[in-house]
Write a structure and sequence with these properties.
Layout lengths: L3 E10 L7 E11 L4 E5 L6 H8 L8 E9 L2 E2 L5 H7 L4 E4 L3 H4 L6 H10 L6 H14 L5 H4 L9 H12 L6 E5 L7 H18 L2 E6 L11 E6 L2 E7 H6 L4 H10 L15 E2 L2 E2 L3 E10 L14 E9 L3 E5 L6 H8 L7 E6 L2 E5 L11 H6 E4 L13 H12 L4 H14 L16 H13 L5 E5 L7 H18 L2 E6 L2 H7 L2 E6 L2 E7 H6 L4 H8 L24
Parallel strand pairs: 3-8, 3-9, 6-7, 7-8, 15-20, 15-21, 18-19, 19-20
Antiparallel strand pairs: 1-2, 1-4, 4-5, 9-10, 11-12, 13-14, 13-16, 16-17, 21-22
Helix pairs in contact: 4-5, 4-7, 5-7, 10-16, 15-16
């Protein structure tokens, strides 16, 4: 018998003005004890809305839910608020995507895990604390007695997600719903979270519903797959069947987008002066002995630097990947290259002209407007990097207002050319960011970076928050901009899979230092540093053959480098 079964679920959002929106259209699926059901689809496919509606968590005004959601035979659709509160947490656990947003910043992690217990049971304080310590240890929090009274801000993203899992498992629920629990995490942390969920399922027989946009991520954990698009189930079945012989073109499209590793073709055998079939130019950007120590004048002597003695060149028309886990120093280095942060040591030059270096503040070279126009940035989160109160037209016009004096008609021509370059319709200029999809927002962010015809674009985790198919579209856009405009990209990412198929060369950072660098196919096929091998080994999808040559897999699905 199924632990949880959804039957003909429909969700409609009533609109005051305009036609109603049917977000979920007759969805059905079920999960059994000890098995993992993965629900896969792009943003807007209805996967998260389905689960929120089925468990009574869809608090959106005007939402009408129909159908059935059976938990051990009890229908949760239409159940009383008291009955839902009794089930949620005690019998149904939840792990959401963003632990930073879902953990209270002013409560210790121990208090928050304890609350998951005491909200359902009355137990002695000492017994609750003992259970919290046990849970923290079970989910892999080191030294739980020392960390139990720490606050979320003192934990990394992966550790915060482990705390969320501890809260979800506090009362040993039979069903765990994990909604994009690894999307924002480093590839190694992602792999450890998946290992943790597999181990917990093995030990407790828990049924898991795992929501994701990425078939590669769920490839090693899913027993059954449901693929959703536009509020309907387009394909479902045993994972071996779906991965081995997908019946629907959309499923094949998701699988193709999930494939990682260096692209096959002439570039694999290319020499050091070629990339993407084109010849690279001379070194454009020079980073020499750069280091950075946050608050270095007041820092303790034993505090390690964020970046230490990093040197590299970026050539014209080159895409250089900068990879490493959170805390490796890659974003700090990107901010220094972009002129947004002064280094504590070393210098950065473009065309031989130094524009940022150490020394007394008044004596440091200033980033003049012309150089600022040559180096632009695309940030990770298109939701927060665009002003929500300004139309796209005003967002894209700002660089011209600051750096060029254009007549209204000339500005309009420039704006339409910009949105056309990033494959958006001119009508988007009159819309606000809230009216755009995540992929459209990121295209607007790219367009803003292109406004002043830069030579270098620093792309800091520019695709990590996007659907796998949208991610592929943005990567294709970056390749086209390199080929058509000769733009050089410093592409910062924690995901070696993405870097492997996009970048010409790779620099691997660990603890603020470069531990390995070289051409992409060389690093992936013959990595020398153990840390690089760990990152490569953590790329998802090896078991299902979703890793291209260049990151070779053995008979057991492990990477051999």
């Amino acid at each position: 018998m199924s632990v949880f079964a959804v039957e003909d679920l429909r969700v409609t959002f009533r609109q005051r003005h305009g036609a109603d929106v049917e977000a979920v259209k007759g969805v059905s699926f079920a999960v059994e004890a000890g098995r993992t059901l993965a629900i896969v689809g792009e943003s807007g496919s209805g996967k998260s809305v389905s689960l929120l509606a089925a468990t009574g968590l869809l608090n959106t005004a005007g939402a009408v839910v129909q159908g059935r959601a059976l938990h051990h035979g009890t229908d949760l659709v239409g159940a009383s608020a008291e009955e839902l509160r009794r089930l949620r947490g005690s019998q149904i656990g939840f792990v959401f995507q963003d632990p930073q947003a879902n953990l209270h910043p002013l409560k210790t992690v121990g208090a928050q895990v304890a609350e998951a217990i005491t909200s359902h049971r009355r137990e002695p304080r000492r017994q609750v604390r003992a259970r919290v310590l046990e849970l923290l240890d079970e989910v892999g929090i080191r030294e739980p007695r020392r960390r139990i009274d720490d606050y979320p801000v003192q934990f990394s993203g992966g550790m915060r997600q482990r705390v969320m899992i501890a809260m979800a498992l506090a009362l040993n629920p039979g069903l765990l719903i994990a909604d994009e629990p690894t999307t924002a995490l480093d590839v190694t942390v992602q792999a450890s979270i998946l290992d943790l969920l597999r181990g917990l399922q093995r030990d407790h027989g828990t049924a898991i519903i795992f929501v994701s946009h990425d078939l590669a991520v769920v490839s090693d954990i899913a027993d059954d797959i449901v693929v959703m698009r536009g509020g309907v189930v387009v394909e479902s079945g045993d994972a071996d069947e779906v991965y081995g012989a997908p019946a629907q073109p959309y499923t094949r499209e998701l699988l193709d987008a999930a494939v990682r590793g260096p692209a096959a073709g002439p570039d694999v055998e290319a020499g050091p002066d070629t990339a993407g079939g084109a010849t690279l130019g001379d070194p454009l950007l020079q980073v020499s002995g750069v280091g950075h120590h946050y608050g270095h004048r007041r820092a303790r002597a034993d505090t390690p630097p964020a970046v230490s003695d990093v040197s590299f060149d970026l050539r014209r028309g080159e895409i250089l990947g900068l990879v490493g886990e959170s805390g490796s120093g890659k974003s700090t280095l990107g901010r220094i290259v972009a002129g947004l942060l002064d280094p504590s040591a070393g210098s950065v030059s473009i065309d031989g002209s130094t524009y940022t270096s150490t020394g007394r503040r008044r004596a440091r070279p200033r980033l003049d407007p012309r150089t600022r126009g040559r180096i632009q940035v695309v940030f990770q989160d298109p939701y927060s990097s665009l002003n929500p109160r300004r139309r796209v037209r005003d967002i894209l016009a700002e660089p011209f207002d600051l750096h060029r004096d254009l007549a209204a008609q000339e500005l309009e021509v420039e704006l339409e050319a910009l949105v056309n370059t990033v494959e958006l319709a001119p009508s988007i200029l009159n819309r606000f960011p809230a009216h755009l999809s995540g992929g459209q927002r990121q295209r607007v962010a790219v367009a803003r970076a292109l406004a002043l015809s830069p030579d270098v674009v620093v792309a800091d985790e520019a695709v990590s928050a996007l659907d796998i198919t949208t991610q592929s579209q943005i990567l294709a856009l970056i390749r086209r901009l390199r080929e058509e405009r000769g733009i050089s990209f410093l592409f910062i990412s924690h995901d070696l899979g993405v870097v492997s198929e996009l970048c010409d060369r790779v620099l691997v950072l660990n603890g603020g230092r470069v531990v390995e660098q070289g051409r992409t196919e060389q690093v992936f096929s013959a990595a020398r540093d153990p840390y690089t091998r760990l990152l490569i080994d953590s790329i998802p999808g090896k078991r299902r053959g979703l890793v291209r040559a260049g990151a070779p897999t053995g008979e057991e699905g492990r990477v051999h480098v």
